[in-house]
Amino acid sequence: MGFDLSGRNPSSEAGKYFCNNNAWWHPLAEYCCEVAPRITRTCKYWHSNDGDGLSAIACVALADRLQADIDSGRAARIEARNKAEIEARKARLPSEPCPI
Prior knowledge:
The protein is mainly alpha-helical. The chain contains four helices and two strands; from the N terminus they run ββαααα. It is globular and about 50 Å long.
């Protein structure tokens, strides 16, 4: 199961289609909303497949913002932070065999 995004009126090949599985979509959506709240607030349902979405102008603005985060190293720092949080949570879980 996953999230399939299709551009309504794509201006390039990149805008036609994007797919992500559930495990990767939700963190990506949360990241977008965290780093670009003004841009992302027009889309209300980031965590469902209900056809909600951004305008073409907002899509370009979000892509520019995400690229700026990648170029500046901010995305990598946030990725490292998230991985550290996941590892810390794992360390607190009891090590028990699964009966299934």
